Amino acid sequence: MLKYTIKRLLGTIPMLILISIVVFSLAKLMPGDSLSGEIDPLNTNPEYIEEMREKLGYNEPLPVQYFNWITGFVQGDFGKSTKYKTDVFDIIMEKVPNTLLLGVISLIITYILAFSMGMYSGRRPYTIGDNAIAGINYIMLAIPSFVAAVVAIYFFSFHLNWFPFGGSVDILIEKGSFEYYLSKLHHVLLPALVLGAMGTASYTQFLRNDIIENSRKDFVRTARAKGTPIRKIYNVHILRNSIIPLVTFLGFDFAALIGGAIITESIFTYPGIGMLFLDSVTSRDYPTLMALTMLLSFLTLAGNLIADLLYGVVDPRIRLD
């Protein structure tokens, strides 16, 4: 497995180089630049804007701009945000804890719901309960995430007043206190519930279908013939085989922990990586935009590698050479 891991890590280098070229090119193809929005004939000196473009290297040839950017990026220098006037690394690190908290809680909710409903539907297929779960899943797949977020805010925040409708913490509470962390948890629960519930449908259906398929295989018939309890057959023999497809999702969710849901964070005005990414696009903050895109791309590749390695952990019959 070590040899396979090293081989995969070396294989990500050319992919990251290609991704960096694509990310840089797409950013530069956007109309205008980060200084375009600051041009105001009444308040801004055009000579100052031109001087800043020269200082930031926007007037250099594109190959030179790419080389300067990627050289600094490899050395850990993500550049300076043109919107926030500070290092991009510091801005990202400020937003990461919020997105991690949102991602972890939403994943916990997703897996709890998916395993509960998937195991129930797989053990009792084509019953009323199975059909009801399938109907709920189809509805969740059909509803856009931004619609679910708006509806959740209306009912749970405005109508029932159970959760706050925005932010990540109450600004009146002292930072570091017990009430501060309770407030952060209170603020993250509603967007996490939306993300977790919306992501449950595909997990549930995959688990259900795999349980039904595996329950018809020869090893299950053999276990039944030996008198193995039904609970053990489903919870040990069938579940171990049925959980493998979900491992693939877990690899992709590794990147989602950092990336967050851009739309959901924006609707809930939750200050995480997703909202920072959207702000960097609208403000043409090239350094922040490119750093976030490269970060998400790297984490996606890392997630795929983790998923492949977990195959061998979940099912010992799978060996990676």
UniProtKB/TrEMBL annotation:
Keyword Transmembrane helix (UniProt): yes
Transmembrane domains' residue ranges: 9-27, 100-120, 132-156, 188-207, 243-268, 288-314
Name of the protein in its database record: ABC transporter permease
GO terms for biological process, alphabetical: transmembrane transport
Topology in membrane: Multi-pass membrane protein
Localization per Swiss-Prot or TrEMBL: Cell membrane
Pfam families attached to this UniProt entry: BPD_transp_1, BPD_transp_1_N
Chief place of localization: membrane
GO cellular component entries: plasma membrane
Entry keyword annotation includes Metal-binding: no
Protein's organism: Planococcus halotolerans
